[in-house]
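Homework help board

Subject: predicted structure for assignment chain

Our instructor gave us this sequence and asked us to write out the predicted structure in token form, then describe one feature. I got the tokens but I'm not sure how to describe them. Can anyone check?
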Amino acid sequence: MAVAHRGCVLAGYLLLLLLAGCKARIHSLTLKNETRFAVDLNTFGFYANGTLDVNLVSLRLQEQLVNYSNYPVGFSLSRSRVNGVLSYTAEETETCPLTLTKLTSTEPLILFLIDIKTLSVNVRAIGEQDNLLRAKPKAEAPKGLRKTRQEPANAANTPDVSKPSTNRDEKADDPDNKLNKDEKDDKSVESNKDIQKEEKPEVEETEFQLGKNKQLTLALDKVNGSYNFSFHMVVGLLAEGLYSLKFHYCQNRVPGVKFPYSFSVEVTEVNPDGYLSAAEIPLSRLYICMAGVFFTAALVWVYTLMKHRYSVFKIHWLMAALAFTKATSLVFHSINYHFINTKGHPIEGWAVMYYITHLLKGALLFITLALIGTGWAFVKYILSDKEKKIFMIVIPLQVLANVAFIIIESTEEGSSEYYLWKEILFLVDLICCGAILFPVVWSIRHLQEASSTDGKAAMNLEKLKLFRHYYVMIVCYIYFTRIIAILLKVTMPFQWQWCYEFLVEVSTLIFFVLTGYKFRPASNNPYLQLPQDEEDVEMDEVMTESGALEGISKVKKTCNGRERQKESTL
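My token output:
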């Protein structure tokens, strides 16, 4: 238990450190010296009139070593009706999506190709589109600027140079920007650069209907060697779906070639009802309703324990603590989603409470299931060495799983460690689920051997039957929540993917109720009848056969010193 305590403290420190960088649905990602050819920035389900804001703050590339005409760099925005794992990238593993000119599947696609030579972003809309794009188009260079660069040095003395600039922009007539006739050519070039800088802020953002404009050219700015641009997109009525935003560096797709690049991007996604994705909008109400159901079930369980308090063991109160912890975790989870939906990010205090209760719930769940599987406090009070090893494995793994869960929740999807911790969480969770089955299997094997050797075959067969039911319950719970529910999530439409969480919570509730019913503290429960000594069994048989004590009840005190139960002797 000391290992579990140290693990909980470590997880608590980690979650406090990680919450400082948690941005939730207002994403901010910075990658330095990255070599991946594709970076998954985010996946979000949009309803009609939802908005997507992407701001590429800075992008630094290898300008001399890479031919970006053959190996482009930029963003792709794909739309799907189901989960993002079925997007085009699963099919086009060898071809860079930025080089596509037509659809290879039924999913619409929007490409943003960055051209550093012309300082422009070429937008290519593929497939049926109903989105509205708002961005700054690329403006042509002023005619006066082009002429000045081509004219000889005395061209600065001619009055015709400033006239096109005057018609192009009123700021060119500013006295501060006019040149004296005696100035040199280098001053003329610097003045034209100043005019160009003053013209950039005047290029206003323009709205483009992507259904009509399949090819667009946006402005790309360069500041101190880094490139930046931004765009704002409004989802149309016919364009609802699950959108996946990715960054591509096609050069690194070539085997053996890895050029580093760095970029910083800010992404904000908003639906008409808040910052949550379409599949996450109902989750706040779902969690608070399920918290009420679990809390009610916990109260019923406590009432049952109080009613049969003379046949209650410590494991029963541990089961009650698990039910209350589960309800509390769902309450904080609901509050966390509420603030994410309204503010775009979680409130750190509520998020910390949710992570703490989630950690406790996970640890209590596997500890309780393993203790029930070993029969601890029901038929024995000492765990064997191999059963103790199970707990020495499960408890640290549960702490690791909760740390991985906290890191996943607090890390941007595009970061390299996100998928590493996601794989760790999946693997550790499966190991824990498999580990808690071993005590049940050992107990079943022990009861099978005991039923054929001792004189208490009927009692052992009843326990064996109950253990087999418990084994089937655990296997069904693991299989449904870890496999079936995930398959349903992948195949469901994007707006119904919240049903995955609903099925997981309902299956957990059913599993808790069945486990409580099977191991209820009732006198007629065969599993809770402690084994008697052989002498007591023989004495009961003698007294029954003689008939001398017919109608007399014997008071039996169990070995735990708490239960007093009357048994009629026939």
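Reply (TA_rk): Your tokens look well-formed. For the description, you could write something like this. Residues 1-24, 84-92, 143-201, 530-570 have pLDDT under 50 and may be disordered. That's the kind of observation they're looking for.
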